[in-house]
Specification:
68% helix; mainly alpha; 62 residues
Length: 62
């Protein structure tokens, strides 16, 4: 993973955590981050799709 890709994922993660009102240091945030990495590794590269997958009802924190 390039530094640019990592930076892009960081932006998605920060946006999702803000939208879900989750503290960065929470267990829920760790679950979101792990799910983000799994989605990325499975081939999802579009930031909007990653964001949508992580914020939809019954997403990774529910």
């Amino acid at each position: 993973m390039s530094s640019e890709e990592l930076s892009d994922l960081q932006v998605v993660l920060e946006d999702v955590l803000w939208e879900l009102r989750l503290p960065r240091e929470s267990e829920e945030a760790e679950v979101v981050a792990a799910r983000l990495i799994l989605l990325y590794q499975s081939g999802v590269r579009d930031a909007a799709l990653l964001h949508a997958a992580l914020t939809r009802p019954n997403g990774p924190t529910e």
